[in-house]
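Good morning C.,

I know you're traveling, so I'll keep this short. The sequence:
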Amino acid sequence: MRPFARFACADWSGAKGSRHPGIALAVCEAGNEAPRLVPAPSGIWSRQAVADWLLAQDDDLLIAFDFSFAPPMIARGAYLPGDELPTTAKPFWAYVDDICDDPDLGAASFLEKHHRRHFYFGAADGVKSTFLHWRQCELLNKHSSGKISTVFDAIGASQVAKASFAGMRFLHHVRDHVAIWPFDPLPERGPVVVEIYTTIAARAAGVAKGRSKIRDANGLDDALSALGSLPHTPLERYTDHATDALLTAAWLRATASNPQFWTPTALNCEIAATEGWTFGII
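The tokens, ready to paste straight into the viewer:
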């Protein structure tokens, strides 16, 4: 596999507004030095500020984001059946960006207004199970982890639906500067963006099932050590967002050279163009 000089992870947010305490960005170099947090402009990240940071990088950076890069397509033959939409991911990202005027690359209006009938917001929408559709990589992960999220579930604290569609706007804004795997082939050099599921990193670091979130210094150092990393510089606050970003950056460094992660058995050209894949699911 091609080498990378640096590894990063952004813990993402789809929240409304323009500044988001739920976003954290961590980076580490090749080797074993601990990942460190990248300070946010004005103290709190915006989605646009993350895009600006990424667009300023031109080295061999591998960076991961924890949102779904596209909705399911394969199982139903359409992203949102019954609506006239693009049928591959990159034009779909452009469509989401064009239709949403939410601040800071937000996409709440996509769910709440433009395509409301496809998303589950609560019991008034009917039977929840009829809204739950998954990508091929999510179905594969379901068999191994037993728990997966769908971009059609718009309730709950994590707001994975809003985060993902906001993320698709983000991808549209950076796509001409970085390779976005597997929608783009892996280039010989330059930045590469991948999708991750932070729980996979936590499991690999020995964090027990049911307690994937780390909220203290000792727990973070233990997990980092399991991934071959030196102890971290103490943080002012130990939030889920910060520790997820730090741990997943270290995991990305430890696993980026694994050829199985870049060539999952079930990944084919159709899936790569429409749904994408979560790095680490094989």
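Safe travels,
E.
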